[in-house]
Amino acid sequence: MKRFGFGMMRLPMLNGEVDTAQVCQMVDEFLAAGFTYFDTAHGYLDGKSELAVRDCLTSRYPRESYVLANKLSAGMFKTREEVLPFFEEQLKCCGVDYFDYYLLHAMSAERYDFYREVGAFELVPQLKREGRVRHFGMSFHDKAEVLDRILSEQPELEFVQLQFNYLDYDDPVVESRKCYEVCVKHGKRVAVMEPVKGGALAELPADAGAILDALGGGSHASYAVRFAEGFENVYVVLSGMSTLGQLRDNVAAMSDFKPLDERELAAVMQVAAALRGKGAIPCTACRYCTSGCPQKINIPAFFSCFNARRMFGKPQSLERYAELCKSGAGPADCIACGQCEDACPQHLKVRELLRAVTEEFRNV
Ligand code: SF4
Ligand code: SF4
Questions:
Q1: Residue 179 in contact with residue 147, Cβ under 8 Å?
Q2: Residue 45 Cα to ligand 1 middle (Å)
Q3: Could you tell me the residue ranges of all domains in the chain?
Q4: Residue 255, SS3?
Q5: Which of 191, 192, 216, 311 lies deepest, with the highest CB count within 10 Å?
Q6: For residue 292, how far is its CA from the centre of ligand 1 (angstroms)?
Q7: Mean pLDDT on 91-104
Q8: pLDDT for position 250
Q9: Domain formed by 4-276, architecture
């Protein structure tokens, strides 16, 4: 299997619906280039990602021509009795009768208790014995010590999906490097998510971008993807692609994959240091926080405006901020209920950060 995967969580949209024609073309070009791995989840795009998988992939290609990963997502069910019906529903939505990779979604110390309570560590291995799941793993968002404990207690887990990119590599919150090292210690394969950090590393500010441009290599995104792929235990790097252009850029970089050499590695670490100095919010735009917000605040969109202004110096962020405030609730409408902070896998202090966003844009 070629080690580059299509994350179906940020698909192109048209009037609130998935742009099926564009996604079909993306799927066709991805498969034609020899890549086979697709990753979805029931909650992505409010259920529309799984349906796009069915419409653009599984109904158009033979089952053995692709590899499909899906997730058991806490928050989509409450009891043990609901796990199997949820799984059946996912198979139906995706139009398949098995998943190649099935993950316990967004594992953390807190969710570990929940997944044990609902019997996930017995039910998914059972599905595996029945041939309806080929590989059992988890996506993970917590500290390396939590990962070490879970992998010690749950040896049936075969792989771990980690947030892994050069900006988070030594980040004290995300601990990408430490988590990777724990996986190596336990002999687990690693799937990488957020190699381009929700697109942030694809559009670097001029000063940071100049460091990579001086090398005369590919796009900024391609350095980020190549960084992640250069690690031995990584079996797939997922990129949540939103346009055909992004897909072509990534496919070109990954078709002729070369790990970063020493000079390039030093350069991406220099970029990371430059970006960290600008005080951006490390939000990955996963949107786990938004559906439960009683004020319906588009939290990641406001964080993205803040980052565009702080880290990437983009003047368009002012316009975007004004548009967002006009079309719905703004950061100042937060009632500090804290739901978003419980949901956030990055453990962001969302309430405090929303106040910082309000301040940043107050006088503009
Ligand atoms: S704390 Fe604010 S932003 Fe977070 S869920 Fe509550 S109202 Fe929404
Ligand atoms: S604030 Fe947290 S939960 Fe919300 S989109 Fe950002 S990273 Fe995800």
A1: yes
A2: 20
A3: 4-276, 299-361
A4: helix
A5: 192
A6: 8
A7: 98
A8: 86
A9: Alpha-Beta Barrel (3.20)
35-67 pLDDT, tens digit per residue, is 999 999 999 999 999 999 999 999 999 999 999
Residue 292 Cα: closest atom of ligand 1: 5
pLDDT tens sequence across 65-77: 999 999 999 989 9
Alpha-helical regions (H) of the chain: 20-32, 48-53, 83-94, 109-117, 120-129, 144-153, 176-185, 206-213, 220-229, 244-255, 262-276, 299-310, 316-327, 339-343, 350-361
Handedness of CA 206, 174, 115, 70 (dihedral sign): positive
Confirm or reject: Cβ of 228 under 6 Å from ligand 2.
no
Identify the residue whose C-alpha is closest to ligand 2 atom 4. 289
Q: Which residues are CB-neighbours of 285 under 8 A, at least 6 positions away?
A: 10, 198, 199, 300, 303, 304
Which ligand has the shortest distance to the CA of 329?
Answer: 1
Pocket flag, ligand 2, residue 237 (CB < 6 Å): no
pLDDT of 298 over the 90 cut: yes
**pLDDT for position 97:** 98
What does pTM read for this prediction?
0.80
Whole-number Å distance, alpha carbon 120 to ligand 1 midpoint, is: 30
The alpha carbon of 350 and the centre of ligand 1 are apart by a number of angstroms equal to: 8
Instruction: Tell me which ligand sits closest to the C-alpha of residue 301.
Output: 2
Is residue 348 in contact with ligand 2, taking CB distance under 6 Å? yes
In angstroms, the CA 115 to CA 105 distance is 10
Go through the chain and tell me how many residues it has. 364
Instruction: Give the model's pLDDT for residue 314.
Output: 67
What's the pLDDT tens digit per position in 210-232? 999 999 878 898 899 999 999 99
Q: Which residue has the tokens 């590989």?
A: 135
Going by alpha carbons, the residue nearest to atom 3 of ligand 2 is 344
Measured CA to CA in angstroms, residue 44 lies from 10, 70, 216, 218, 356 at distances of: 8, 11, 36, 30, 28
* Per-residue pLDDT tens digits for 270-286: 999 998 888 888 887 78
